[in-house]
Design brief:
Length: 176
């Protein structure tokens, strides 16, 4: 009996020393997130760019551009008042000879399609299908933002062949 009492006392003493801290550990959980604005409406009225007919002779030299420049616009509208900016992220099939342009799946060879913001120059301002993005402010009056573009056929290597041109620029919008 005495031995059992002694073991219980020993156990009680150890438990008192260890206490509650020996059985539990404090853990901090950081919780974070972000409340995003509601989406705007993307105006899809005009989304085609037609280069028409052009001569392959215009694209025989490396780094040459077609004379035809086409403009187009994507409008986001009906944005909530809390939306102050829209980010457009671009993706698509890159032009194999210069990934700052979009590739063509048409039958013409050695050509790509360059797309830039309107009022830019045709150098390093291409909206790349690899990492292109463009941020525009939303008008507090119209609750909209216009993305104005210029598009042009381009040959990084020259020696373009005749055939069709077909490309796609995918745009994902993020609202802040």
């Amino acid at each position: 009996m005495m031995k059992t009492k002694f073991n219980w006392l020993k156990l009680l003493f150890i438990l008192t020393l260890v206490g509650q801290d020996g059985w539990a550990e404090n853990v901090t959980v950081n919780i974070q997130g972000r409340v995003l604005a509601s989406p705007c409406v993307v105006d899809t009225a005009v989304q085609s760019v037609d280069f028409g007919k052009m001569s392959a002779l215009d694209l025989q030299q490396a780094g040459s551009y077609s004379p035809a420049i086409k403009n187009f616009r994507i409008t986001v509208k009906d944005c909530p008042e809390s939306t102050t900016s829209v980010t457009a992220q671009f993706s698509g099939l890159p032009y194999p000879d210069d990934n700052s342009g979009y590739g063509s799946t048409g039958s013409a060879q050695n050509i790509g399609i360059k797309v830039i913001p309107a009022n830019s120059v045709w150098s390093d301002n291409s909206l790349s299908p690899v990492d292109g993005r463009w941020i525009k402010g939303v008008s507090s009056v119209t609750h909209s933002a216009d993305f104005d573009f210029l598009a042009r056929v381009y040959s990084a290597t020259g020696n373009a062949t005749s055939g069709s041109i077909s490309g796609a620029m995918l745009v994902t919008f993020i609202y802040d």
